[in-house]
Records
---
Amino acid sequence: MVASPGERDVAVRVEKAFKSYGSSHVLKGLDLTVLEGTIYGLLGPSGCGKTTLLSCIIGRSRLDDGSVRLKARRLKDVGFMPQELALHFQLSMQEVFTYYGYVFGLSDREIRFRVDTLVQMLQLPPITRLISDLSGGQQRRVSLAVALLHNPSLLILDEPTVGLDPVLSKSIWERLVEMAKEGKTIIITTHYIEEARQAHTIGLMRYGKLLAEDSPNKLLEDHNTNNLEDVFLALCRRDEAAKEFKWDSSFFSRGAAKPTMPLQNNSNFNTSRFKAQFLKNIYLLMRNIPMLLFTFMLPIIVSVFFSLAVGHDPRHLAFGVVNSELDNSLINCPKVYPTDRCIFEDNITISCAFIKEIQGRDYRLHEYSNLDNAILDYRTGKTYGLIHFGSNYTEAVQERVKLQKDASNLAIEQSFADLWLDSSNLHVLYQMQRDFYNGIKAAFKKILKPCANESETAAESLRLPITMEQPVFGSYDYDFSTFCTPGLVIIAVFYLPTVFTTGIIGEEKESGVMERVMSSGITFLEVALSHVIVQMTILVIQIVELLAIIFLVFGQPFKGDPTLAFALLVVVGSQGMLFGIILSITSKNLTAAGFAGIGSNFLLMLICGFFWALEGAHYSIQLFNRLVPLTQPIISFRAITMSYDVLYDCNLPNAPLNMESTIIQEYGLISYYLHHFLYS
Ligand SMILES: Nc1ncnc2c1ncn2[C@@H]1O[C@H](COP(=O)(O)OP(=O)(O)OP(=O)(O)O)[C@@H](O)[C@H]1O
């Protein structure tokens, strides 16, 4: 065994380390000692727990039991090369080195000097090359160079020589030996047992514990061989024979690990690290032109397609007409219905007045001489509906209007036109009902107007006994698209940052870059803040695009205060960004984050009142649909765009209490508080 070292010479000491992932026990009471200024070769088959151990040593994972003690105190004293490449593939080597240089607080001059040395030592290609354009071996050497960049006193390298040609591996080992002579401590894992001969100490690991820990020469001597693989084989056989010791589960639930001194980071926020992170985000954005185009084109595409496709009244619908009181009425009715002829005059055809009104509402009318043929076409879906005027329609309506309660039963019966409407499409049905109701009302108004006074009274009595007053909120002229537009804007402004944030952070997490960056000392605050600044800039442009296209180009009504609308959208975008951060952090990988994002999008869209009144949802949904993050912003934005003038006029801070509660109900909490924030 290695002579028992004094505590001063120990760079890393792991004692009785236990670590499990669920029921899989990875580290099983492992002890390991690495002396300062030495190379420690950690050898073992795949899956024996080497990476897990390294992760616990640098503090990225916590032991379940046992302890890890490091002589190094600061994160910048440690250089870590993870097993996966963990590099930004879209960046150039120069940008990667600059990034990590700033992360470790190096000046531009120091970075240049270190990069020149490393390029020579690791035989790297010109540093202007993109990482994605390098070969696998070159990428691994860049990853190693990143770990060496800040000249740390403790180097932890997880399989640095995988995939490298033997000549280069040899030269890397020679350089590691030199570094150890300079006082650096190096822990290196490898599958290539023989290359570890150059290490000062070898730890042979199997099933989560060390079978032996000694100098290579001592191990060879003890086993009377000149081949390390034979040593490992002999130790494995001995381990098999000693398997009577059983690992029962109680062994792995021994309470919390002893506190391990964490590596210090100096501060939660550091300007150099923030600059590194911010510049890296800008580089990544500029390098990824398709993503940049997608980011800026998506709001335009969404708003244009929405404005063109959604909410407008269906037009040019095919509609059947059977007029038994006039042959070929589409041709024979007067082109413009005469406005000076009273309903009671002779030789007037009231059905023509209705047909003209319907034509004016943009229907494609097909006239049939035979009701059966018209019904057949309606039933086979060739027309959306059918109206039939009986042969005595005009006389019957005249008698009914003139005599009213004294009109004959026959006249009343014949004064009804028959209307069939296709109900398979709700929007089409509502529109046809509205058009026919309004058309007949308008036609009546026209043919009653030129009549003498007494007839006018009779005509007035035909009106429904109700008067529609001007609405306080909104307008009767708004169509379905006016109702849906605020929802679309809010959903877009929420989900655009969600997609972007999840993509950027999720990709960094998946590729191992986030792990590497965090173990290099970058804090969550620095990651989040640099991301927020870039994302906010993008968001502002996206909001302007959306608003300009929907409200300026397509002329959706906007009655309120643009500043309040903009402030509301920035709040919603920030919510979306936060949601993206939560999704990418909590999801196992980018695919899972994508699924969670799409799933939540569907769910939230259904219950947020985007295209259907919240009051129309089932009682169980109404218990919480106002609490989901999109609902209040949609209510608020709808209020701002459609009827904000009431809120704007009523000087909120001094409004009576009941007025405030009305406003909160009508305009949504967010408008209310934002208005207070901006104007009180
Ligand atoms: N996050 C995790 N969740 C669940 N199991 C894990 C996790 N990380 C590692 N493991 C499991 O722990 C065991 C040890 O993995 P580890 O990566 O430490 O092995 P290794 O010795 O480094 O292997 P290799 O040489 O192939 O990299 C493996 O069985 C692995 O599947």
Note: Confidence is low (pLDDT under 50) at residues 244-256, 655-660.
---
Amino acid sequence: MVAKMNPDLKKERENASFDPEKITNFLYGGQESVKRKRELESLALNDPDYQHEDLNFMSREQQYETQLKKGILMVTKMKELKITSAQDQLFYTSAVLVSDVHPMSVHTRMFLPTLYGQATEQQKDKWLKLAENYTIIGTYAQTEIGHGTFVRGLETTATYDPKTQEFILNTPTLSASKWWPGGMGKTSNYVVLMAQLYIYGKSYGIHPFMLQIRSLEDHKPLPGVTVGDIGPKFGYDVMDNGFLSLNNVRIPRENMLMKYSRVEPDGTYVRPPSTKLAYGTMVQVRAGIVMFSGMNLAKAVTIATRYSCVRRQSEMKPGHPEPQVLDYVTQQYKLFPYLAAAYAFWLTGQTMMSVYTTSSSQISKGDISVLPELHALSAGLKALSSSMANVGMEECRLACGGHGYSHASGLPRLYTNATPASTAEGEHVVLMLQTARYLMKSYNQSLQGEKLAGSVAYLSGVQLVPAAGRTRNMLDLGALCDAFRHRAARIVGEAAAQLRSEMQGGKDQADAWNASSVDLTKAAMAHSQYFVVKTFAERLTDSRLDSSISAVLTRLCQLHALHGLVTNSGDFLEDGYLTGSDIRQARRHINALMAKLRPDAVALVDAFDFPDGILNSILGRYDGNVYQHLLEWAKASPLNKTDVHQSYHKYLKPFLEANRAKL
Ligand SMILES: CCCCCCCCCCCCCCCCCC(=O)SCCNC(=O)CCNC(=O)[C@H](O)C(C)(C)COP(=O)(O)OP(=O)(O)OC[C@H]1O[C@@H](n2cnc3c(N)ncnc32)[C@H](O)[C@@H]1OP(=O)(O)O
Ligand SMILES: Cc1cc2nc3c(=O)[nH]c(=O)nc-3n(C[C@H](O)[C@H](O)[C@H](O)COP(=O)(O)OP(=O)(O)OC[C@H]3O[C@@H](n4cnc5c(N)ncnc54)[C@H](O)[C@@H]3O)c2cc1C
């Protein structure tokens, strides 16, 4: 029997100004792609082999086991079903895994990409097939208990022994123990080990090495290897993040991944074109995190928006029926800016991935000139998108009131699994400072008359003329992009001036950098925000965009820009570029835009096209039948298996009886 749709949600859908399918096609790159996505999703969601008890009702060990089984089934079935393209795999795996990962995820996301990116053809012949086949399962072992951010400071050593043509691997101190790699605790039998290369006592910096850590016969740690799980975390329960220490473990010379740098049998070191090529896998994942953050935010906003149309609370007018909570303008102000941000990061994520693809093909042809721009852009956007998603997902949870706190909402699990994206693959501030470093360099080049290209082109010959008194239409996307560009250029210029003045005041470069670092991160943030606003606006100029959806997408883009402008209003006012009256106008526009977006809110989240199985949220159900399913879900809790829990007999009964006896 098909369940009836909640009448409020039904009405929302009937009243929308556009057909959400058109936006779905825009977001996923066309009708064919959407069709394929739905086929793959339904294949996964209807497969009885993937059904299991709710992970929220399981212990961590059970969760690990369940997701491992599921991950193994998933990779086996993808092979059988010939699901091979990256896009198809993403559609299928998203439906199998929902908002979780599986213990071999780092194998797919980092171990394999490191082999593709860092191994020679000969090494690929040796390992790729084994890794693609899951004959060997690997992870990316870089972070140590004492150092994660400071990659150059890692302590694990790979010392070349020319006599045997082997590397001797050691974690010489407690702080050198590898710590965090996903899937290392219990699952992997191989790692890519990032270690300091030593030849004849001389250090050559961080390099990747293939290391077998467990027996392929009985999975026991190999001699010299101590390995295990690091214990429960804030989330990511299904993942066995691990520790690893090494004591004089020998590997053959051929196990150093030598696409870019080499050690010859006699110990001669051949330098790479850039030492930063060894960081390539991190750059790839950072680029992917922009889209990942947009999607997670989209999921959270879908849940909170649908629920806000089903939920009725309080009286807006005395004696009137309780309104849908989404009719409260404060609720719209909680959700709509993140709805707009989800679209912004979704589209920017696509642009970031295409920049990544183009740049990496140039790099593989030997042109490394694109590396600095790629690194700076992916670092800043990764940091901005993940932090925005964190704040947005939490706001969505709060917007769902008490039910948002229940695992039934899907929001706690979504949040705790997605929030590492702010820390892992480079901590937020650290990455912003990397972008700032590129901005300072580019800005100084522009002062010397050099013409800049790419994301920093706007720093060339920028005219920081205060434009107060000018009448502006604060809804004009061109004017909004100009405002963000001006703000970014000004803050970059001021951070550069601050840095200079610290140095002129007697500080050396490092101290001056540290003293200016709050302004520098602000510059990187302003630069990244400008890039997102500009990208969103540019995507709307696509001539293939149907006019019925370009109106509503333009409203979202305006809201995204205006909300960023109002929440950072000081930045725009500080040099008089905008006036108090502009900001007041912006605030009024936000209210008007929210009122216009209100009837389209459900259609806008429907357009993300997350089936219920992927949202995994009772509050976000497509049919809106929330209360009935909340009750059913609660009844399934293991604590409700019996009316009287065994602990009553063990603890509560004697306690009550003892108290009664004292009366
Ligand atoms: C495909 C789809 C994917 C989908 C993705 C979905 C993902 C889901 C994610 C969910 C989250 C869960 C995570 C699970 C996996 C986590 C794995 C990890 O964390 S693994 C562990 C992750 N760990 C981390 O992320 C560690 C973070 N730390 C680091 O990356 C580095 O230590 C550093 C970058 C901070 C500094 O590096 P250092 O060597 O000290 O460099 P200096 O500062 O001295 O600067 C010198 C020069 O180098 C330049 N440059 C630097 N980097 C690059 C680059 N990559 N390139 C080019 N250039 C670069 C720099 O600009 C400067 O240039 P210049 O000014 O001289 O011209
Ligand atoms: C869920 C999860 C999965 C992970 N998976 C893996 C994996 O598979 N493989 C792997 O190798 N690693 C993995 N990591 C480790 C991760 O990459 C690191 O934790 C991350 O890079 C941050 O480094 P850190 O822990 O050393 O933080 P720290 O650098 O110690 O950060 C602590 C504080 O110091 C500040 N700080 C540090 N350096 C600077 C600086 N230069 N300037 C200003 N402030 C600074 C930071 O801003 C932060 O506030 C994972 C981590 C998590 C949480």
Note: Residues 113-272 form a domain with the Butyryl-CoA Dehydrogenase, subunit A; domain 2 fold (CATH 2.40.110.10).
